Amino acid sequence: MTSLKAIILFYLQNLLIFFLVSDITAQQLLEVPLDNNPVIIRHHELHPQDYSRNNQVCPVDTLTIPFFEDFSSDTSFYPNCSKWQDNHVFVNFDMAYNPPSIGVATFEGLASDGKPYNTGASVTLGTPADTLTSQHIDLSGKSASDAIFLSFFYQKQGLSDRPEEQDSFILEFKDTSNTWQRVWEQEGVNALVSSLTLIDFEQQYIAINSADFLYNGFQFRFRNLASVSGNNDHWHLDYILLDEGRANNADTLNSNYGRYADVAFTHRPTTPLKNNYSAMPWRHFKDSSMFADTIVICNFNHNDSTGIATLDRSYRVDQITPNPTSLTIEGIPAIPSYFPSSNDDDCVSHPLINPFNSSFVPVEKTILESTYTILSPSGFQNNPMFFDNDTVVTQTVLDNYFAYDDGTAETRVIAQGLGTKVAVEFTAEVSDTLQGIYFHLPYFTNRDAQLDFINVKVWLDSLTGPEAFSRDLHHLQYSNGFNGFYFVDLVDFAGVKYLIPLQPGQKFYIGWQQSFGPEVPVGFDRSTDASNKTFIGTGTVWDTSSLKGSVMIRPLLWPDSNFTLIPIKNLNNIINELTIYPNPTKDLLNLKLTDYTNSAKYIVLIHNSMGQEIYTAQFKEQLSLNNWQTGLYLLTLYDENGNILSQKKIIKN
User: Fold this and answer.
1) CB-count burial class (<10 Å; 0-12, 13-18, 19+) for 643
2) pLDDT value at position 645?
3) Confidence (pTM)
4) Could you tell me the residue ranges of all domains in the chain?
5) 3-class SS string, 119-172
6) Cβ–Cβ < 8 Å for 426, 402
7) What CATH code would you report for 578-652?
8) What is the fold, at CATH topology level, of the domain defined by 4-32+405-557?
9) According to the model, what pLDDT value does residue 572 have?
10) For the chain, which ranges sit under pLDDT 70?
11) Region label for 115, one of left (φ > 0), alpha (ψ between -120 and 50) or beta (otherwise)
């Protein structure tokens, strides 16, 4: 057990660090990696059959070449079992930076259930982590003259955590004696590379020309070495092709980009809503003017011929619930001669040829589905193995909350420095009432939630004006729920509900201030960007965030108290063995325990709202607060082993 002395020293050290940071460091959002993968954890809860390959019905015969995989058709977050034997990696559409096609396999320090392999492992050593093993492939009767090559794209870090030099990405072939032979290896990022640098995908070619590998039953596998204590050290794998009749780099234009008879989407459709909202209250969707005027579409042309065809694509939005209805007529401007990637046409903002359905006005919770489709792929490709990346789909929710994020956290951010404030801007379209705030708080596997507090904040019209709501020293509870979202009701310390009315066109801001205790990480979506709506404040000075992405906090709006919450599951609760009264108080405060057996060994610590310790002593049943300043205080009760028994907020009148 942690000693009381150690706990007191911990708090004093943190307070000193926070004050030093506040004085000498520019206040900012700082990225920190996730502890686990809440998407996989949630999926595993809902679909446990996907977790074990033993429970999947996937009969597989020995495969023949060509073998192609770009992870564009996998929707279960696990690799397709018709091609792969294990499910350690995370198949996703969000964590890579500018992939060669939609979908990648991500390698990190997590097991297939989304949790760390070993929470106690060293964070400085590269340890065997994920493995992706192919099914058996028939290469019998082949020789070196058949020019068989395995090619693939790989990326270090992407939009997530950077692998260090001690971390590795490894390719192995199984020989005729069933022994795995290492044929290629890449180390992590050099420490001299700036942390702000986003690293591109690279392509690698490996010849399979040894008789040791040219047999019926050949396999290849990728592995990574990482810190297996959390969601660390990411590598992304994409666009794998094993085939014959190839030459080393002969089908590449340069060392980074492969050339194949394929044109692919690389990202899911952007939101059809204005202001980059990924979700908004349906009551605020007044008419079709709420739809965006332009959309962004990103493709990758893997061909090597200059301007070989016209790239003709469509964009459509359909209402899929409650009433299936088409809201757009297909059509966006075509690219007359689409050159090989990379070029300026790869990621372009397009105006729509046809307007949205002007009669669409939702009257209840609605889900929209956006679809990108390549209409005439034959100009670029004729092989069915490339067809899966020709269509991409995403959904937009019209419910009772605003959101910029897509619901997936690639990383987390903290408000660096005691007193630092983070605010995200939204605009009401109709009269409404702000009822509360969703915070994305990814569940921690090795963190004491009893130590974490923030000051919850709401501002109206301007960040330089008075706060419309402040709930200081709000105690957090981490959850597995809807990808880790936790709802904070706008209730003060006396239990009084704050209803914050909003007028049409009114800007409002929700956020938090770093308070007493460790800096609290909040989910951060790197694949969407609301940095122009995100502000960092110190005192009365505010700056626009320079960190590209979306802080995952969402305001819930509804005109009355009968609103619906995204369900959450609380995992941590403070042990409540203490009652204090009267509260608020002008002077005397009584402390009542349910059990006084060891109370003589208990210690009481009290901090003010800025996290400064102002009182520490052995437990006693009555305290005098007569000489204290008015305001909010936090009382923490420790037992003889330094364990927290209870925490209570005190209001001094």
Assistant:
1) middle
2) 77
3) 0.79
4) 4-32+405-557, 38-258, 265-399, 578-652
5) CCCCCCCCEEEEEEEECCEECCCCCHHHCCEEEEEEEECCCCCCCCCCCEEEEE
6) yes
7) 2.60.40.10
8) Jelly Rolls (2.60.120)
9) 32
10) 1-27, 45-59, 74-75, 248-258, 306-307, 443-451, 477-484, 566-577, 641, 643
11) beta
